Amino acid sequence: MQVVVRDNNVDQALRALKKKLQREGVFREMKLRNYYEKPSEKKARQKAEAVRRARKLARKRAQREGGLPAPAAAAARPARP
User: Cα angle at 47 between 45 and 51, to 5 degrees?
Assistant: First the structure.
C-alpha cells in the first residue's frame, strides 16, 4: 500500500493511509487476530456476518423498489449535485 505525501503534508497523508487501511479491513483483521478464535466461533461469526450482509442487501433492494421507505437520515439529506 502506498500513500503520496504532497507538500510535506504528513497529516493529510496519514488520513489517506488510515482511510485506505479501513477500506481494506486491516484494522478489523488486527482486532480479530488479537486473540485466538476457536474454529466453531469463527464459523458462527462468519455465518452471522453473511446473514447481516444478506439482510442489508435485501433491505436496500426493497428500498430501491419502493417497498420500504428510505431511512430518516437518508431522507433528510439533500441529494448530491
Answer: 115
